[in-house]
Amino acid sequence: MTEQEQQHVFEKWLSQYKGLIFKIVRAYAVAAMDQDDLFQEIVIQVWRSIPRFREESAVITWLYRISLNTAIKWSTRERKRFYDEPIEKAEHVLLEGHPIDNRLTWLYEEIHKLDEIDRSLTLLLLDGFSYKEMAVILGITESNVGVKINRIKKQLISKSKTYSYDGV
User: What is the mean pLDDT of residues 5-20?
Assistant: First the structure.
């Protein structure tokens, strides 16, 4: 594959699936600066992966796998760095802009609290992937996907009952 062909595929995938990448970024990174960093890392991994894409799966499945794996690695690395960082340096996280939709912000905060696999499953479920596709993307069994999704749904439903939107 020439670099020009790679560039063409990259631009096409990025324009078609930018929303998918933003969704994953938002689920794994809270602060705007972190979201920018993670988005950049995912895009770099997508660029590097294009020559290895053999069309054995759908493009969206391939991009999900790359994006989720990159986000999980980034999250693990950032968590370690965050715990090593003095609290004064993390103050910027508390000073981020105001949310546009509190319910959506609540949902992403709850998704962010899930462990990496559950977080990935939630995103895949929201995008309408089948259990079989989720199993392939995450490398777990289809029955395990079903059990985990059932637990996640129960957990989110339970938490949503205690959610209060602007005191209502």
Answer: 94
pLDDT tens digit string along 113-132?
898 889 989 989 988 889 99
**Percent of the chain at pLDDT exceeding 90:** 48
Separation of first and last alpha carbons in the chain: 57
Q: What are the backbone dihedrals phi and psi of residue 17, each rounded to the nearest 5 degrees, phi first?
A: -120, 20
Both tokens assigned to 101: 């939709």
* Amino acid sitting at position 99: P
Measured on CA atoms in the order 26, 156, 78, 74, is the torsion positive or negative? negative
Report helix, strand or coil for 86.
coil
Provide the 10 A C-beta neighbour count for residue 87.
7
| Tokens describing residue 19 | 């929303």
Residue linked to tokens 């990448």:
21
Q: Which of 64, 66, 39 is nearest to 124 (CA)?
A: 64
Tens of pLDDT, residue by residue over 34-64, are 999 999 999 999 999 999 999 888 999 999 9
Place of tokens 């499953």: 121
